[in-house]
Amino acid sequence: MKAELYIQAGNSLGEGPLWEFATNNLLWVDIEKKLLCISDVRKKNLIEVDFKSRLSAVALTNKSNLVLLALETGLELFDLKNGESVEIANPERNIENNRFNDGKCDPVGRFWIGSMDRTVKPEAGSLYCLEGFNAPQRKLKHLTISNGMDWNLDKKQMYFIDTADYEVKCFDYKVETGSICNPRKVITVPEGYGAPDGMCIDAEGMLWIAHWAGGNVSRWNPENGKLLETVIVPAPHVTSCCFGGENLDTLFITTARKGLNAQQLKDNPQSGGIFFVQPGVKGLRTNLFQIHLNKKLNGNY
Length: 301
Ligand code: CA
Description:
By secondary structure, the chain is mainly beta. It has one domain: 6 Propeller (Neuraminidase). Helices cover 2% and strands 50% of the residues. Strands 1-24-23-22 form a four-stranded antiparallel sheet, with no helix packed on it. The chain has a four-stranded antiparallel sheet with strand order 2-3-4-5, with no helix packed on it. The longest helix has 6 residues, at 262-267. It is globular and about 45 Å long. The chain binds calcium ion (CA). Calcium ion is lined by residues 15, 101-102, 147, 197-198, 239-240.
């Protein structure tokens, strides 16, 4: 199977795609260009919102027009209509060399967000869980590149990638509390596939993994660790993927130009674009960050 170009966004480091079911919008970020990117797939347009610091992840919320952003300067609620933002947390305010990386909402609307050292210093990153406007809880430490994550269909397991490990870990998950325990390796990624980066689950409970420096997205069975399918992407640095489209039957894929030399860019001119493929399986609706309305923040929300 081969993915085709959806739109050449020219991303330096495209990342974190997600599908907004209510609007048919695909959202993603360009971490290095500090952009939030939005495309209405019916128009195939591209709207870019630029920020002053690196934006590593976006989450939809249960309030239309409000998104949650993971900026280097902190986790913020951002109003897409009027451009106003308000910081809600910054667990790494005092760790100067770190930035946030991949993040995603769990099935009941907590936002999980990882961090890493900007120079990829080993074990300098952590994984946090933000519930409403409470202080984020640190769930994992000693991570190198905290990256893709998702939850299984019965919400009892959480899958997680630290790219440096070349594997997918599975944790037992208590959805009532957001606690994780009993980590074990469920997928080992061979080096030839490229480094495991972003990840999403499909409606059959199988995992789709984007491979940096691998030019592909692969589908795996986390129950037995077996590789099921490989989607070739005509861009070496494949960063993340999500299901979208009206029927949730399209896999959208982000890529990067960063890290490619002049020859590689010449050979792979679609790098930095958004790709798509219809793999014959559907995805799940995007989880929304739940803003608890009984907790007022600066009187605004
Ligand atoms: Ca990533």
